[in-house]
Amino acid sequence: MILSIDAGTQSIRASLIDEKGNIIALQKTPITPYHSPQPGWAEQDPDYYWENTCITVKKLLADNEVNIEGVVITTQRGTVINVDQEGKPLRPAIVWLDQRKAKLEDYPSPFLKFAMKGLGMYDIIEHVILESESNWIRQNQPEIWKNTYKYLFLSGYFHFKLTGFYKETTGNMVGFVPYDHKTHHWTKANDQKHKLFNIPMDKLPELVHPSERIGTITKEAAKEIGIPEGTPLIAGASDKACEMLGSGADQPNIGCLSFGTTATVSTNIPKYKEVIPFFPSYSSAVKGSNNTEIMVYRGFWMISWFKKEFGHQEVLHAEEMNVAPESLFEDMIKEIPAGSMGLTLQPFWSPGIKNPGREAKGSIIGFGDIHTKAHIYKAILEGISYALKKGAQQTEKRTGYKMTELRVSGGGSQSDVAMQLTADIFNLPTHRPHTFETSSLGAAMLGYIGLGKHTLSSAIQEMTRFEKTFYPQKKEVAIYQKLYDKVYLKMYPQLQPIYKKIQKITGYPKK
Asked: 10 Å Cβ neighbour count for 104?
């Protein structure tokens, strides 16, 4: 049996998963995502993650007496931790949601800056320098940076706590570090990324590939977490990468949608290509390949936003009925036709650096006196799918691979309405995996591959399957195609000048 540990943003989940992809037992512990000591900051105590993981695993194993053959960790991406020579955290972890900004220093030079602007890449270079957590720590907490023995992602911290080794998986290299996504190694000394991030190589952990052995559970860790001493720890990958693998999406013709807080459209490609110029395709859970990814940053967070701002009555009613509020919203929108009676939403509640531009804002157009909050709810679902379809088309154009089917994971995949309208908007068969825990499942698959009990092919064949498939409906496909081509794709180009004027007048979003 594989013990799969998924340390997410809002919960720690521990699962026991067998060789057939069945989740034999699951234990979940909700956690506080972060604390904000200053506006825009997002920090969490690294020991808080570890202690809650120990609590979760101990409870799971106390209730289930099984033989643990291996352990695999998958975590949230981009959360960083500084540790000293003894592996003790020097400061709180900076969570991936953090919005603090570093300062620009002496890179790039004026000449190089001019050249980068000519190539259309300076905004991206500036963005990564400002967003780099290591740059901020080095500039604002120099003593902590000086005393940092290793600079780790959350997964690397867990690996150390369990085995005593500073090792990180290439499948989790999503963040501001000098990593080469083409070669799946740390970049060479003369690479420009060292100027962007300025992290000495000796502060970085050793890299291993997904499914390779990191080490074994130490005696000290065994006492704390309850996993038998000597149990192998197998390298996993990030939550998104494991989610793709757990959905069985190992081929470039399979589009993998994640209906989570951040909604994404991804594919697994055998050769490195950048879907958005100058933005990397990330190393995947499949050794030697990469995951393309285009995200709608706020994604299904918008459902939480909708519940908070417009769904008070439904939330209270759901509590009385002991059901999820989303089930009531599902009932509300079942009879609303495709296109929400002309209401069309552009889901740029939090714009990006490039896709779309920083000035973008969310928009809803087409209101009439017939529209209710139910129409807005369905328009949100449609708007997210429109944005993901645009990302899918960009992916196809840049990679040369045509998507022929979709796999959908994340909380939003539990909605039949969301799944069906996605099938209609994409005009593709859309599969819901047999388990909601695709990230944990993908991690377990890597564990069995690492133990030699599965190959990649047999793991996908025997451990992944579909709970339900949604097929495109001809009438709805025609409506959505016209709305997508003639309305949605026109919105951003036509509204962009207005967004820029709003930004100039109000100062929001900041440049």
From this structure: 13
Q: Which residue has the higher pLDDT, 446 or 119?
A: 446
The pairing of strands 290-296 and 363-365 is: unpaired
How buried is residue 37: exposed, middle or buried, by Cβ count under 10 Å (0-12/13-18/19+)? exposed
- The boundaries of every CATH 3.30.420.40 domain in the chain are 2-236, 240-298+402-470
pTM of the complete model: 0.93
What would the mean pLDDT of 432-457 be, rounded to a whole number? Answer: 97
Give the pLDDT confidence of 391-430 residue by residue, as tens digits. 999 999 999 999 999 999 988 899 999 999 999 999 999 9
Q: How far apart are the first and last CA of the chain?
A: 51
- Name the superfamily (CATH) of residues 2-236: ATPase, nucleotide binding domain (3.30.420.40)
Other beta carbons within 10 Å of 278: 16
Q: Which two tokens stand for residue 427?
A: 């005009």
Instruction: In whole angstroms, give the CA distance from residue 197 to residue 135.
Output: 6
The two beta strands, 167-169 and 206-208, are: parallel
Give the distance between the most distant pair of CA atoms in the chain. 67
Peptide bond just before 509 cis, omega within 30 deg: yes
The set of residues, in sequence order, having a beta carbon less than 8 Å from that of 478 and lying 6+ positions away, is none
**Cβ atoms of 240 and 264 closer than 8 Å:** yes
Quote the Cα angle for 441-8-194, to 5°: 105
* Fold classified for 240-298+402-470: Nucleotidyltransferase; domain 5 (3.30.420)
Would you call 206 helix, strand, or coil by DSSP?
strand
Instruction: Take residue 157 and report the two structure tokens written for it.
Output: 């911290």
Counting DSSP H helices and E strands in the chain, the numbers are: 18, 23
Residue 472's CB is within 10 A of a number of other CB atoms, namely 18
33, 4, 29, 32: which is closest to 16 by C-alpha? Answer: 4
Own/partner contacts of 176-184, CB < 8 Å, gap of 24 or more, are: 176/78, 176/128, 176/131, 176/132, 176/133, 176/134, 176/135, 177/134, 177/151, 177/204, 178/204, 181/272, 181/280, 181/281, 181/282, 181/283, 181/290, 182/272, 184/209, 184/283, 184/288
Give me the half-sphere count of Cα atoms (radius 13 Å) on the Cβ side of residue 322: 0
CA separation for the pair 123, 108 (Å, rounded): 12
Q: How far apart are CA 403 and CA 400, in angstroms?
A: 10
Q: Tens digits of per-residue pLDDT, 205-234?
A: 999 999 999 999 999 999 999 999 999 999
